[in-house]
Specification:
This protein has about 190 residues and is mainly alpha-helical. The chain contains 7 helices and 3 strands. The longest helix has 26 residues.
Length: about 190
């Protein structure tokens, strides 16, 4: 087998969870769970991943179910609290909610963690990721409800807390060890 063929097979193997998701999405789109739907979905998934080349993202292979469940509960609470906060800001006619664009340098982020942090931050009402600097690991967010530098710093710390939660739940063993070492060195929990 040639090195190029091995490289393609390795990419397909690493992308298998993504391909499975695309096939499932295809079957849901057509509301058909048949062999033909599976085969056509697989062909379309291979075509999409080959034509629209994205960098191969290797999954960490580590999922901590306790931290993942805790993350989901904290996320749902944050969405609810964010919706209430934005509603109160919108209906406070005496005062305009302040807005800012902040940069948040992520500490443990590879492509996968950066994506999870971006999606999480954007789904919580009151903030939206407007740009990512993949090379430097910085997220730029538009946030509302900010009047002072302390408010912006609090928002930045909130995003960094989400990064830590995601690393605890889904990060690679090396990322998790780095987080634990930083927590021991800083005395934080």
């Amino acid at each position: 087998m040639s090195p190029d063929a091995r490289h393609v097979l390795r990419d397909v193997w690493l992308q298998m969870p993504f391909l499975a998701w695309l096939v499932l999405l295809w079957m849901l789109l057509w509301s058909q769970f048949t062999v033909l739907s599976f085969v056509t979905g697989f062909v379309v998934a291979i075509f999409v991943t080959r034509v629209f080349r994205l960098p191969t993202i290797e999954l960490s292979g580590r999922i901590n179910l306790w931290y993942a469940a805790l993350f989901v509960v904290q996320f749902l609470f944050a969405v609810f609290a964010g919706a209430i906060a934005v509603t109160l800001q919108v209906f406070n006619f005496r005062r305009q909610p302040g807005a800012a664009i902040i940069g948040v340098p992520l500490k443990y982020a590879d492509d996968l963690i950066m994506t999870h942090v971006s999606v999480t931050s954007s789904l919580i009402p009151g903030s939206l990721v407007v740009e990512t600097d993949r090379d430097r690991g910085i997220l730029y967010l538009h946030i509302i409800g900010v009047r002072t530098r302390a408010d912006a710093d609090a928002q930045r710390e909130g995003v960094l807390r989400w990064e830590k939660r995601i690393v605890r739940a889904l990060g690679s063993p090396a990322q998790y060890r780095a987080l634990k070492a930083d927590e021991r060195a800083g005395g934080e929990r």
